[in-house]
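Standup notes
- DV: blocked on the single-chain target, sequence here:
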Amino acid sequence: MTHADVDGVAVPTGHLIGGEWVGSPTTFESRSPIDWDAMHLADIARGDDAAAAAAVGAAVDGFATWGSFTVHERAEVLHRLADLIDENTDEIAHVETLDMGFLEASMKARLVGRGALNFRTYADLIVAHEERTWNAKAMWNTVQRMPAGPAVVITPWNAPFMLATWKLAPALAAGNSIIHKPAEWSPLSAALLAGLTLEAGFPPGAYNLVQGIGSEVGDALVRDPRVRRITFTGSPPTARKIGEAAARNIVPFTAELGGKGPLLVFADCDLDAAAKKAAWQFDDSGQVCLAGTRLLVDESIRDEFLERFHAHADALVVGDPRDASTEIAPLAHPDHRDRVHAFVERARAAGDTIVRGGQPMTDSMHYEPTLIEPASNDSEVVQSEIFGPVLTFQTFADEAEAIALANSTAYGLSAIVYTGSRERAERVGRLLRTGLVWVNTFLVRDLTAPFGGCGISGIGREGGDHALEFHADLKTLMIADDTCT
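- DV (later): unblocked, structure below
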């Protein structure tokens, strides 16, 4: 097996297929956004149609074993994997920081542990599940979950380790074998996770990893008729292509496709807390789908809010993500930095006001934390997901206008509301067209709650039993009353 030495951590560079590490005829580069020109991390196997076919074939074979495990047997393996993740937190966090640019302190404190928690949560949910049984029309009815079969799991480049575990855990807990295709911009932590599955004792073919370019090997995976589930996190254009492939093979498909979340600030709120949370939407350089990127503020507190917002934004530390004092990390890839800047330049040309920031930072992949006051609610920076450290600022006259502005994009993943009124929180929360609303907080979730978006933010729901039922085929067993003893 070939490994790359990534700053002292041995990272597999191939695919994991049928329990064995294998290569491909060609490779692609993994480079670090910390110093793009100087920090070449690894050459990774570039999957092709042959790799995709082999991985699906291995998953078909692996499903025969993994799908026959009892829920207690699957839970035991998932708990072992979670323990191994905890034991390797430092290595996973360091490699992901180098590969994607995420803050290493956050990785160690929150995100790697959240990955372990994802596996533990689903291990416990499958054991605790009780089949629904009832009597009707002189029949005993029992709804049973059957593992669906091989599942293709395609995960994004931002927070790749945690977001991969969020999708992989329910698929595996349900009894499906999986083929994981990570994003080519941040492939390394997926390789570490795949290696840990071998130590945890997954049977061959239950867990497969295929590296490569999405338009190449990803396309081959979702087109394979042997695949029985597809779950994807990424962009709407890619989701449309995957959805077409899934429809051709009549395969259930879920997609989490990002957001353009509003952050509504009412005059009765704790204004400093709201301004501080608004500034923290620059966290991870805005590469967070749940971020409240559209600041919608009561016009009566406009000036005071902006004064507090700028003070908190000015205090944010931009720097090397390996440094514990850094709060603003680099963007993940030069192409993405250029994309973010193109949005800002188009906004400038269209007459939007650049309130702060608006430029790449010299000799780095960092981008200035940027605030734009649009000339119109129809402005591109209001309506399109930028996925960078770029927020927009608008004011509203009353609650009705605030709700109208909040619901005015095609996205509907999440929203944040700051108010001191419980009645307003309930009223506004019910009227926002999003899959998730936080009031006076952010990024706090119960993993058993449904997660997903409205509009072009996605299809389906993840989280808890919602994810487990997606990854299962449901069967109703009906036994005539008094015919069996």
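- Follow-up: Residues 104-128 form the longest helix (25 residues).
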